[in-house]
Amino acid sequence: MDIARVVEDFVLGGVLGALGGLFGIGGGLIAIPVLALLYHFDEQVAQGTALVMIVPNVVIGFWRYYQKDRVDLRVAVLLATSAAIFTYLFAAIATRTEERTLRGWFAAFIVLLAIYYTWRALRGKPGGSKLKPLPWGWTSIVGVFGGILSGLFGVGGATITPPALTTLFGFTQTQAQGLALALVTPGAIVALATYAAAGDVNWRTGIPLAIGGIATVSSGVSLAHRLPEKELRLLFCGLLIVVALLLILT
């Protein structure tokens, strides 16, 4: 075993875990292009390996958000259930999709996210929508779309969920980030099993990443609750721009 490589993966997992806790995304959004760039993994293996880290990170992250914000468990269960079904269906599709095509879809998704979050930040309206909040049962639709993205890309559900929940349902940013983790937790487990069954997981890289992430995700959650919402949104926007650049490099 290459000890230096294990240490490198552990440190990388720590950085990604902290980012995942801070933004409620489990660290996977940036892990996928990083794994492709550093280790030359194809898209399916990068996504499957990132899921090894994502699963424990999102479980711990959700629990920490629940402790701090008392996340609405009705919404959490509805999001998780609706997402898990579609995560399985679209993860199966992703493992059978040509690698170049899947990476192109992922790149387009991240670029659109970066544009959207930049637009929101520049509008100077970081608070939630003033529209009357929709009934909580409608969050199942958010779960469906989140499950589709999580299945296709291994990540994604947690990126669209916070803006949807703050804008349409009146949740605060940190509450929405906690619910985003509730959405992706069971789906991430389902997606990992699906990618592993297809042989698209590098466990020797994924396990040190996961251990590093476990060590830092709680710190990221704590920092998220100390930052003003505007700064948190701007930081997330910056992260998306970095990810988009990494995708261009790969």
Q: Give the topology string: H per helix, E per strand.
A: HHHHHHHHHH
What is the overall pLDDT average? 82
| C-alpha geometry | globular
Number of strands: 0
How would a crystallographer describe the biggest sheet?
none
Radius of gyration, rounded? Answer: 17 Å
Q: Helix/strand-derived class?
A: mainly alpha
Helix content: over 70%
Low-confidence stretches are none
Question: What is the compact description of this entry?
Answer:
By secondary structure, this protein is mainly alpha-helical. It is 82% helix and 0% strand. The longest helix has 27 residues, at 43-69.
Fold and architecture overview:
The chain has 250 residues and is mostly helical. It has one domain. Helix content is 82%, strand content 0%. The chain has 10 helices and no strands. The chain has helices at 3-23, 28-39, 43-69, 73-95, 99-123, 139-153, 157-169, 173-197, 203-224, 229-249. α1 (3-23) packs parallel to α9, α2 (28-39) packs antiparallel against α3 and α4 packs parallel to α6. The chain is globular and about 55 Å long. 55% of the residues are buried. The mean pLDDT is 82.
